Amino acid sequence: MTLTSSYSAVSAPRIAHHRTFAMTPPTHFTVTYAINPWMDPTVPVDTARALAQWEQLCRVYRDLGHTVRLVDPQPGLPDMVYAANGGLVVNGRAIAARFTFPERAVEAGHYADWFTAAGLGEVYRTAGTQEGEGDFLVVGERILAGTGFRTDPATHAEVAAITGLPVITLELCDPRFYHLDTALGVLDQNTITYYPPAFSEPSRRLLAQLYPDAIIATAADAEVLGLNLVSDGRNVVMTDAAPGLAARLREAGFETIGVDLSELLAGGGGIKCCTLELRPSDPDRPVPHRTEEMMPDLAEPHVAHNYSPLPVTAASAEGAWITDVDGRRYLDCLGAYSAVNFGHRNPEIVAAARAQLDRVTLTSRAFRSDRLEPFCAALAELCGKEMVLPMNTGAEAVESALKVARKWGYDVKGVPDGRAEIIVAGGNFHGRTITIVGFSDDDDARGGFGPFTPGFVRVPYGDAAAVADAITDDTVAVLVEPIQGEAGIIVPPDDYLPAVRTLCTDNRVLMIADEIQSGLGRTGTTFACEHWGVVPDVYTLGKALGGGILPVSAVVADTEVLGVLHPGQHGSTFGGNPLAAAVGHTVVRMLADGTWQARAASLGTRLHTRLADLVGPDVLQVRGKGLWAGIDIDPALGTGKQICLALADAGVLAKDTHGSTLRLAPPLVITPDEIDWMVDRFAAVLRGRH
């Protein structure tokens, strides 16, 4: 399988195909709220003019021989005119939308009812948010799917499962182009037109690979929603305000029909937004079975749906293997996001926990325990620091480090009260508390949780010059992951961390290294920073520090930094509890002689050597260090979730992130033979996707 389309833009005559569209009259159209950058409630809307323009669009479709079926508009739902957002209909299967904003949420039920009344059969509902054809555009035998502003990328896997088509994730980065259909138009089964600056750099590269003959739009085309068009394969119905794009389409053999839909542009919509295509059933395409992935609420009805797990229910585990409730064994290549570095139920760690369970488990910090100081002393020595602040989860460690950095800035550096700033990296993942998601650029993590904590400046990851430009007299810290885990195991340029270290030293700024996933042996060294000879001022640790048994985290720094905390200023009931200290101390002792680190380095070489052999049409790139790998899969083979489901069927557990990227983080107890077995299964899964 090759990544690109084999179709040339001038290799065949343009042929029109009959289409059936659902459309909703703008009877109640107005702009009373703003949920996209095009909407301004202070500017009056001429509803009668909007209706006249919409009726002209309907006439154009009918004059071309297409069928238009009308959906009844509903009072109080002015955006219902944008029917494309109401759902997705592919191969006769209708998927009703699940809107992001409450202002439009009620529309989903009306469109679902209309799909049923229209004879489209069973109507599917996704667990995740998605706004229909606004973010799902069908191009031949694949679906291009947008994310970044409205549609949850996890929903892409749901849509793939329902439709039986591969879904390719594309990330939008310009809020003016908040839906995929505002930045990309489908011209026929092989040809698209799009505006590259609307997409993230990885998505631009992907589109260039998939559609080398695409017609590239200019800013002038995009800024009038020229790409929000409808094509039947020959005739392209589009705004009359994009003559440049129209000319390029005609040069490529298409016929263009300009329509004035300027009044509806006040709501942020154009030609395509008003047009939902109803694609008939293909009798040769099998109907997919409903799965737990499609109905996650039925798998665990009493569990909040903040995760979309693979349909594997663990019953027991040992070493690198998990056994499910049916007795099937799986090689765990996720390791609970590095929390199980030392294997499931590591005998040494389990023995320490059992011994402590027989003594005392919790006193709170209202009293001392005989386990806390030895643990903190050993961890400080491992880190080459003087003091430890014990906490529970990784997010709690990061929050604690942020508080400490601000306090240090005021008490030690002398930053005026209330002005402390902390620089963070784009693509970061440090947890999901309100403060942390506030400086994330992941819209799924941020959406619906504001207002957020001020005082953070985000710059691109891997760009030391951007850090330098962002530093001011009020900067107290730079928070960075030495290797970004959730982003897809992103390894920075070799000069990045050393440059950040120098900038922090020269400007009297704390360098905080989030080693929660990357630390404690995962990458072949105790800390990932060691690969670049960098020692931060502050470490945040977690996950593996609890030995895969219970949450243990810590902030580790010198006394000058952690000494700014005084009684009553910070605390945690469970932080540093005797059971956690006993487990954490055991983990530190296990790491003290470097055996585990050396094992991860050696096995990591084997893992990356085997994975490198797979790079080609199916595997686009492999990144990582030690027993940590990010693998970019050809999206034409399916989403990352689909690949993970296939791997699970083959007995391998992995986790996807960001579309078609897989992460591997097997326990450090994995053997060379198990690595080979896993890579062989992975290769077989890729072959089976063709």
Automatic annotation (TrEMBL):
Metabolic or biological pathway, per its Swiss-Prot or TrEMBL entry: Amino-acid biosynthesis; L-proline biosynthesis; L-glutamate 5-semialdehyde from L-ornithine: step 1/1
Enzyme class, UniProt record, top EC level: transferase
Species of origin: Gordonia desulfuricans
Pfam families: Aminotran_3, DDAH_eukar
UniProt keyword Transferase, yes or no: yes
GO MF, one example: ornithine aminotransferase activity
Cofactor(s), by name: pyridoxal 5'-phosphate
Record has Transferase as a keyword: yes
Protein name in UniProt: ornithine aminotransferase
Record keywords: Amino-acid biosynthesis, Aminotransferase, Proline biosynthesis, Pyridoxal phosphate, Transferase
An example Gene Ontology biological process: L-proline biosynthetic process
Domain of life: Bacteria
Record-listed E.C. numbers: 2.6.1.13
